[in-house]
Write a structure and sequence with these properties.
alpha/beta; seven-stranded parallel sheet; 25 helices; globular
Length: about 550
Amino acid sequence: MGSMMELQGSEIAKKMWKKLKNGRALALYSPFIVCLASGTLNPNSFLSCISQDLFFLQAFAHAYELAEDYADDEEDKEAIVKLKKRVLKRLRNQDALIREWGFEPPEESVCENATLKYTEFLKETASGKVGAEKFSVKIVTPFEKTKLAAYTLSAISPCMRLYTFISNEILALLHPDTDNIYKKWLNSLSSQKFEASASRIEDLLDKLSICLTGEELAVVERLYHRAMKLELDFIWSQSVTQRTVVPFSRLNKCASEENNLIVFCDFDLTCTTIDSSALLAELAIVTAASETADIRTTWSSLFGQYVEEYQQCLDIIMPNSDTTEQVEGLNYGGLCKALEQISDIEKRATSRVVQSNVLKGLNVADIRRAGERLVLQDGCKRFFENVVECKDSAMEIHVLSYCWCSDLITSAFSSGDETPFNVHSNELVYEESISTGNMITKMESSMEKLQSFNNITKSINNETKPLTVYIGGSVGDLLCLLEADIGIVIGLSATLLRLANHFGISFVPLFSGLVNKQKELADSGTLDCKKTSNILYTVSNWDEIYAFVFGAVDSSHSSTS
């Protein structure tokens, strides 16, 4: 019901596209696209892919022909005719275009299985067989026919938008003088003509959907999502003959059962939308009941003092630092010294919390229930759940956190006894399931996080050293982020950016970094992971992390490892 409400009004196509963050990430982080962006993709793989254009274009032309008949409005008919003419022209000029891109057209094209699945889906949709039920829509009135035109366009629209998105993302990385043999093809997909066609389809879909019911809009969205899924399956089915940096969990995969990847992760504001200390404070205030006002005042005082001391510490470390002003070269020693100063603030704040007894009286069952209701970042829980589902995945996950209570962390991901990861954090002390107010402090500083990180990596006795990924977003994560083979920052805060710039740490979007690493892998045959680098990688959401680590789990692609 909520999904239908979101699609009410204008710009329906844009709303549906916006919701597909995971799909966009899966497309970009596919082996085929990463290799293509790096310019290292085998030309035979590229030709095999574009040879399928013939079947896609034929399916589009047939679908437009049916949609033209369904449209009741003359203006809509004319718009669909123009789209059909453009597709037919593209079909006639396909071989010439391939030569224009710098390649020789394949002598023959065989329709691949992934291509067939999409073209059959489009054919059935345009013929009135909608959804998994494959029932024929009863066409009674011109209006009933018009909705079939909307259904047809919803099965085409995401394909066009996906390729404009991919081409624009790749071209944004390429310097004007970059020698990428696929640049002309990318330019054609990001051209004004291609964008105009994609936008025209979306505008027409919006117009045809205005009078649809909530139930019919739900059909439009379902078809749109199905088309996107089939297009992603097509991209992931493309043959890639070289080793690839994605999915990262498969880079060092071997026949043995040894762990080839260790993923480390912070918890507060990396996995969660709020800081866990605020949640525990609120729980303590509710538990106190008769002393609510007093304990709320105490918590306010504790947080206020922490914020004031933290800011003063930053001002001492960086008295005249501008957020946008970056120092050249990593000053690792200076960074460690600064983080020690910040750690002293963290430790004093935790000590004051313990001494004030504000965490006394909490029931472990209440803490676990609060953890189960804790709101996680979009896509985060799906990432952790996939670790459990991928039983053949030779990887470990460790959560390193300043959180005061490990029970809160484990219950946030699982209501049962089993969790798909190891937790390294502080612990509340209980007597008969009730907190005493005391705490066993294990993780209060960047140095303690780094020590835990190193202890875990050194404990793995593999023939091949496992790769490491660290996911974080706080100042306390910096040393681990720098130590990991791939350090990923999610939700880059102003404080983290300011401190990083001051000590010569650079941030690069993860997709851009992987394209460069794919070039490195193609040139040398190995991935230099790592001399300590000053480069960290940024993502906007967990969908990117999921796509980078796992890829399209259900899809198979031929990639040499």
